[in-house]
Amino acid sequence: MELNAFNQGLLAFLEASPTPYHAVSVMRELLDKAGFERLDETHAWNLESGKGYYVVRNDSALVAFRTGRNDPAETGWRMMGAHTDSPCLRVKPQPEIREHGCFQLGVEVYGGALLNPWFDRDLSIAGRVTVEDRDGQRRDTLVDFRKPIATIPSLAIHLDREANSGRSINAQTHLPPLVMLTGGKPEKSFRELLEQQLQAEQPDLSVRQVLDYELSLYDTQAPAITGLHDEFIASARLDNLLSCYLGLQALLEADGEQPSVAVFNDHEEVGSMTAEGAQGPFLETVLGRWVTGEDYHRAMAASMMMSVDNAHAIHPNYADRHDSRHGPLLNEGPVIKINNNQRYATSSRTSALYRHLSDQLGLSCQSFVVRSDMACGSTIGPLTAGNLGVKTLDIGVPQLAMHSIRELAGTQDAHNLYQVLKAYFGLDGLW
Hints:
Elements: H1 3-15, H2 20-33, E1 37-39, E2 52-57, E3 61-66, H3 72-75, E4 78-83, E5 88-99, E6 102-110, E7 123-133, E8 138-144, H4 163-166, E9 178-181, H5 190-201, E10 207-219, E11 224-226, E12 232-235, H6 238-253, E13 260-265, H7 282-290, H8 293-301, E14 304-308, E15 311-312, E16 335-337, H9 348-360, E17 366-368, H10 380-388, E18 391-396, E19 398-400, E20 407-410, H11 413-425
Parallel strand pairs: 1-2, 4-13, 4-14, 14-18, 15-19, 16-17
Antiparallel strand pairs: 2-3, 3-13, 5-6, 5-10, 6-9, 7-8, 7-10, 11-12, 12-20, 16-18, 19-20
């Protein structure tokens, strides 16, 4: 896929995916269109050579794979992983706050969100809802209000003269968004308002009551190509839906000869210790139903995982936060992430394989090492490597404003990494 088409597809994917549930729904549509068959974890599987399959767990995580023509016990699996979740604000179960003529929603911070950028944005709400229908059956459905329905107004500087030098944010009291005014309006619960929205979106869905939900607030500003020379991609959730998109496209366009796997876990931003997270058994379960016994261990020993998660580009206003020799630049190529304390799972062997592939394609790549006097973040890479015992590379596209409500990446880097991943999925031999 050429660069412009790739980036336009990325923008469409980002806009259609305000939550992990929506991201997985979009990925399912792309896989169905490509002829992949959905597998049910509660049913017996009969996998055929040369076909594509996918498995969904909790509607928020997905494993897609091509069985290929070769035996995984002989050639291993070519695997990549990313995560579907991003830091955000989640609506609480009893969220109604009615004070001073305002109707607000109680929210909980999900993950390590940068909170200041959430103020004064045009926000909407989306996620998964479980309802009881008129026949008394439970049904899961997605909801997306789409239009701006909420905002978190800043406190005027006249009432806080230290706002630009020392304002701190209390997540309990400062973040509830304003949804509407209550004066003269019939009092309704949030669940009743949610039921109204479901009926408006899905007239054929007969809802007796909303049983529960997992809903997130999100910024309604559309993703965009920005910069004087169109150098940047600006959007929410670049970390890590950008990696999900490029990984899925690489798998869809691979030649299908090699056994190849793409896993998209949920809950990376909160530790991954869930049934659908990278510390859970999801990927291992799928692989264990594909290949069993001694052959499974042979396959794993011959395999590799590319953990694809965005990296910290050097910020021109805060360059001192980087090791001066390991400050990745936007549009200078994907970033191999290295940490000798194993916060990243990269080894010289896995990084060498990536550099070799990148060189063969005439593409660039970079390296990131955190400053020796700063703590290092982590990814699903070490978790997957420790869980499966698989050789792993941590790599990702450089970006700015990570964990903000609107992040920034380069227009070249994701397409670069997609090309290398596509070649990796078709690689005849790994080692």
